[in-house]
Amino acid sequence: MAEHIKKSEYNWYVVYTKARWEKKIHDILTKKGIHSWCPLKRTTRQWSDRKKIILEPVFSNYLFVHINSDQLMETLTTDGVLFFVSENKHPKVIRPCEIDTVKRFLLEDYKSLTVVPESSLQALQKVYIIKGVFLNHSGTVIQLNKRTVLVNLQSLDQGLLVEFNKDFVLPQYNSVDMETM
User: CA 114, CA 124: separation in Å to the nearest integer?
Assistant: First the structure.
């Protein structure tokens, strides 16, 4: 356990799960009394005879848990949980503002969302977001075809590829990092 984490303090962590077990593990943890969160998005799937709208996890193989240090082992030993996302051999604490930002974003109507691994991202132009749920945050433009802006939630080791209207962003010219996350 990291020295700076108090034993009774509740923090957000990310667990890595078996493939396609995110919702199942969420249900198991909830039954155990462990607060977990599996962000879901609506997706249309085409079968040979019909189309169906389903809910699938936003982050493949990831599940968020809000626990104290006493619940770390109970969470880790849950069937389907492989490991905690870690930093310096300790479970990495996710800042509440990052969880809140993802929750608010999932409520927005104008969005288009794709999650990509941090390692596959390419840094191009930094932009400052002036409207919407990501107001006053910085992002990196991946494509300029239409209005795609990357918002990097660094401690999640993931990037959110978010589609904005062009009037939602301004180029970031100075060297001061305006990101507030």
Answer: 18
